[in-house]
Request: fold
Amino acid sequence: MFEPYLLDGPHAAPWWASLTALDGALARAEAAAAAAAHAGVARSLIARGHADLAEAVAEAVLFGPGAWATQVGRTVALGREVFGAAGLAEAARSDLGQLAWLVRRDWQGEVEALIGRALPRWERLSEQGDPSSEAVEATRRLRQALLSGAVAQCLELVLETARACGAGPLGRYEAYAWDGRRLVGVATPAGAKLADLVGLERQLAPFLANVEAFLSGRPALATLLYGPRGSGKSTAARGLLERYARRGLRLVELPFAHLAHLGAVLEAAARLPRPAVLVLDDLAFDAGDERLRPLKSLLEGSLLTRDERVLVVATSNRRHLVRERHGDRPDPQDADVHAWDTHHDRLALADRFGLTITFPSADQRAYLAIVRALAAAAGLETGASLDQRAVRFATWGNGFSGRTARQFVDRERAELTGAGTGS
Reply:
């Protein structure tokens, strides 16, 4: 087996050790060891959901950890060309030539000739992944190029994927979350859809226009989505992925509990090759909360400035983000003549967002309009009976809101499915 210069992702793959053992067993003409290693490779491929060895190699090259992933992340963060140094391209070309030989080698025939019997083939071990995924499509194309032995085409595909998706494990994903130490990919993001936000066209218009500007490379404004719980703020933020992922948008979510790590998250997001929306969901600060400082610095554009490819979108149930109590207000008899200045500065955090959009509360009329639209989209029968059940559901539950409407329709669908299956 060969030692890679740059594209070392396959070395970290679980199947590599079995493949190396198989290569050694074949070289030593050890029949039993070769058969065992052949089965070991198959088990590893099946466990990882790979269709065959060529697909496994292609995915490991593009999205495996190692020197290549580090190189791509570094150059993206610095805004430089991945193959800026000529030696890197030469190293990658050499590695791809070796890998193309590896996937085209007749492992099956060699083992069967050694042991004198037929073995299960390493083909069609798994279903093909989601064809709409950029990562799946990139892997498919590189697999075909490796099998054809077209090294120049392989090199171009590797470079093209690095520019579009990045490299390393995060390159497989379109959505990310911060776990307290690093960004992790979200394989199945919550299925939020902007189309579900019935009656909010007026609120969504400036929001989406701002995102469109961001994606087009024009100036865009940090955005605050404000409104009562269940009014659609989080759906609007997360629904951007469903609307714009194919145009390259990525979504990064930073939980409020980890807001102190804002600087590290921005640094990690800056290494993504595609523009990212950083979602700060459900913000609500107490007076004196130290997590206010990095957010203020970010919005003011001081040393903690956001990368031009990161757009901040925050949601909150509070217009001023900071909880205000009567006891927090300055005493009129206080000798500190600047006390009110300090107080207003604390409450002015929301004003640092360039765009603030208010999501209204839903009354019964608006709630029923949302229910009918969602029910129709789900193929449910609408009418007076549905309206009555929806009002009863909201009265007994969480009140009139878009979230309650979604919960009601989901319950109706579940009950209809259950009745249809006889459960």
Observations:
- The CA atoms of residues 234 and 392 lie 25 Å apart.
- DSSP finds 16 helices and seven strands in the chain.
- The first helix runs from residue 14 to 28.
- The chain has three domains: 9-172, 194-358, 364-421.
